[in-house]
Amino acid sequence: MEHNSKIDVTTIGNAIVDIIAQCDDNFLEEFKIVKSSMDLIDEERSKTLFDNLKTTTIVSGGSAANTAVGIASFGSKAAFIGKVKNDELGNTFKNDIERVGVSFKTPLTNEGPRTASSIILVTPDAERSMNTFLGACVNLDENDVDEDQIRKSKIVYLEGYLFDPPKAKQAFIKAANISKENQNLVSMTLSDSFCVERHRSDFISFIQDHVDILFCNEDELKSLFECDLESAKSKIKEICDESVITLGAKGATVFKDKVWNDIASYKPKSVIDTTGAGDLFAAGYLHGRCLGLNAEKCGFFGSVAASEIISHIGPRPVENLKSLLDSI
């Protein structure tokens, strides 16, 4: 990519503030929460859960925003597009993402519902169950897509969750088309297997028409094609030239240049909270792609970033990822 790119990666996704709390399995049962799932809830349910939690950690999150923060931590230039309200949580979100060097130019809105929040319940087995009130997020539309910014970005990264609100989907298509016109790359994450179930055929056609680099985990890919992993791998390579499939503790596998590359996981100091592991794997991988590195090197960066994130509570790195990589 020889043209004048000012931004390495622009990510587009739900701008969410995470409210992280530790709880036991009884709490999940009492409130009828399916372990390890992502449930969309309304404002009232969000308030009920919040009022029943003992101690919470409030950190800005949102899958694509976490990826942008990871990319910036590696030293690449990252930008984020997402909708927040001009309220306390919205301002927290904006300050948090800008403080770590991510460009965030989407205007804060004074209309409509409050800034989105996700109550993430972490059980002693480090699994997390997400209860998300989408609030202002759902009003993201194509007017929020800064054409000049997309034009200047080597890679645009789209979060699958944004297929839920119809206006946001239009924003995706606009961003993908601008990227293509400028010979930039379009990448996307499938986000979660329930999301895949809701949009299976739309996802398949969007990947086929627009996506250069797909990110997903094993369950999401199996859900996309409704089959076992090996069959799903042979189907995805028919419609996408580059696919990155994370496999938890087993690492990842990457389809690029017509071959599968196995990526070993990088051993974490400890496993405290798996929130954001996939987001940060994508950050490391995309940082490597911006540097023009091969699949194995990109995957290694992803593994290092994922191992940092699962060693502490919260979906954003506490160590500088560039320094961490330099020390290995």
Characterize the structure shown.
This protein is of the alpha/beta class. It has 12 helices and 14 strands. The strands form 2 sheets. It has a 9-stranded mixed β-sheet. Helix 8 crosses helix 9 and helix 10 packs antiparallel against helix 11. The two termini are 29 Å apart.
Please tally the helical runs, counting DSSP H or I stretches of 4 or more residues.
12
Poorly predicted runs of 5 or more residues: none
Largest sheet: 9 strands, mixed
Q: Return Rg in Å.
A: 18 Å
Helix content: 40-55%
Strand content: 15-25%
Element-by-element helix/strand order: EEHEHEHEHEEEHEHEHEHHEEEHHH
Structural class: alpha/beta
- Tell the overall outline: globular
Strand order of the largest sheet: 6-5-1-9-10-11-12-13-14
Return the average pLDDT rounded to an integer. Answer: 94
- End-to-end distance, in Å? 29 Å
Multimeric state of these chains?
single chain
